[in-house]
Fold this protein.
Amino acid sequence: MLDVAMIERGLEKTGKSKGGLAAAMGVRPGAVSEILGGERLVKASEIIPIMEYLELNLAPIMGRVGAGAVIEPDYEQVPPEGLGDIALPDGSFSATLSPDGRWLAYVANTTGSAELWVRRYPTLDGAVRISANGAAEPTWAKDGRELFYLEADKLMRIHVAPDTRARFSYSLPVMVVEKSFMRAPQPPSFDVAADGRLLMLGRVPAGPPAPIQVIVNWRARASSGTSP
């Protein structure tokens, strides 16, 4: 996905100006600042001019989807660093990137139990252990200021410090709610809305068992017209 972080990195890496980018996009100069400030979205027709002007990598999409269907645009977006694998410790899973693209949260059992860790991305240095009593399904808030995870049936949360350039700084984990809810086969099983509200699927309590009625000689009763 072409996001603000990619555009900012492209401008910084190439040394090009926002005015030049606006000209390449065919928009007024202030539109680029609005995009970077989150006031305006990038249009589909603007993706290719942005990526070409900022010299971002383009990888051709292979093939078509469906009978007569065409993927638009004709190029898939690739991060400026290019394609490649990142190496996390053995036994790591549930990796999720912060909204600003600077921090990678993941779960690893390097200590003997599944715990939540955060590393700087893409260098993957500065590993910080977050949880102490187990963790699963890390999920960032939309603004990146909070990080949620599950500890058994407890939904935990940490607040991310405003300035985390040198090291990932955060407040101690606190429990948001303790409740058994439905877990999805493919994590995460919950999400966080932009206003901070949580989306979780609660379990429906089982009702009383339905009674079973046995009718004896129902054929004879049916033919005689008598009720059971």
